[in-house]
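User: My instructor asked us to take a sequence, write out its structure as tokens, and then describe one feature of it. I'm not sure where to start. Here is the sequence I was given:
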Amino acid sequence: MAKLQLYITRSMGTFNSQLNLNPNEDVRSYVNDVRSVLSTVDYDANEKNIFYLLTSVSTGVFVTILRTIPKNAGDHLAAWIFVPSDIDIAKDDLVSVVKQTTRTISSVKVSGEDVVALRATFARDYAVRRDAPRCVAMNSSGQWAWRLYGGDNAPALETFLGDGLWQQCYLPYRGILLVDADLQLTPVIADLTDEPIGGTAAILPPEKSDDGFDPWVFGIRLDAPVRATIGDTVTVTWRRQGFDDVSETIAVDAAEVTPRQISTDDSRKVITPSSFKVTSLTTHARILDCEILVNGRSITAEGEAFTRCELSQASVSVNAEGYFPYSGRMDLATLTQALIQLAERRKVYRFEVPVKSSDLGAPIKFDILSQKALNDSPLEGYELTADIQEGQSRTNHLRYTGAGVWQHRHAISFGVGLLIGIVLMLLLGTCSGSKDKEALAPAANPDDTATVVSVQAPTPAAPTVITEDNTQEQALQQPAAEQAPKPQNVSTDKPATKEQISAACKYLDDNKVWTRADMEKQPALRGLYEDMNNLRYERLIEVWGPKLAESKMFADVAKHAALGKHKKERVLKAGNTYNKPGDESISRQGYLNRIDP
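Assistant: Let's start with the prediction itself. The structure tokens for your sequence are:
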């Protein structure tokens, strides 16, 4: 149910409230001192005069009764009757309430009995119209306007309490002052007396369009019925963020009017570099220095305007130095900001190292991804059998030539140190007594086996898995000669197909816990468990990240590996693994917490 509201105020030097019935804080905030509207009328300040003021807000209309107070111009009592837009009240009932309130405040003094009578009147309940059109507010910062009522030619006061309560022609103004024709007064403000009074109509919302544009009328989104005036016109504006407005004016020729759908294909949207977010696929860092083309037109800071039709399937190209270019189609009409990830342009070098015996399996193969060109063997103690070639389809064969530079230096240092030690021992022996000599050089025992001191060069390094980040190579040492080499994360299988990679990505995305057994069943995931368990950050970032780019879950792993690889040395120390012995499962969230603490 709904009720009328009443707010009585007095303005005499100061403005204050006298009586509130059924008050609402939001509604009461619109009640203010309106002596400025009385200043537009040259009335007799020594007499009591009655004026009516119509104002509207988004929730309803005020019918304000102004009774002037002698003898100072502008002093007055005001009775603000608020009529909610959804209240179901007959015109005759509203006329009765307005006339009773007018009689009450016209008296010299409002008595207690008058207040009791007003309370009874405003205590009445009225039905609520659920389908009532929304009211449109007048311009609160506009000027006042006026019009006559009564007399021989002007509409009766009752007309302004029916259809005349709200009219479209009122909207540009702050409020409409109703002046009795018998007073023969002419306010010095806009005169709307000759404006016709039309019936109340409703603008109904059309069906939602597929192009993303929404209709607006009177500055209000048309998602529910909005009040209008029969015989007037309404401009319907179709709006969508980023696009130019498309407007159409329609005639209000019935009690209910529904705007038609209009074409928005020619509405234009300005595309600027900020319409795109270009990042590195590997590090997710923002790439600012890039060239962007949309439908063949270069996108500069000033922007380029395109129609909605042109943007629905726009051809987009992005080029940045050091990255593979992007080219594809996007619905830029829908996207507020398009995300484009570019893969780093790295050179691929494939190497092959023979094993000691064919019984140990196929030769060891590995790839190096480098931003710079390689000119020689990446392994100490190995050389190329031919000129180095770049590309995944080209294999560079390596052969063992002996210990590398580090091993030679280590052996020389060890030999020099040993020689110095022997010389010092001999010198000490020469300077010592006979007992000391015997202690240093005991008599020979024919049964003893001679002790031979020799210097051996360390076993040369052999390749297992090598990755490269900014031309920094890593090589694992070859195990002892009597043991078969244990290659880590080296696959002699054929490269995984697209279907196998897609299946692998689906496994990663569908499971929160990844097990070694399940991962080894996937051709595209073989070796990944070892790299994750041994916290090989560079391989997770440089090798597995691009390979498993389709997986949203693994993208998080690559991202946090890039963020966390330098955070804590305890994570990267030698021999440190994610799992304890016997545990071969990896929880994705637990792993993220470990690599990026």
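For the description part of your assignment, you could build on this observation: The radius of gyration is 45 Å. Try explaining in your own words what that tells you about the chain.
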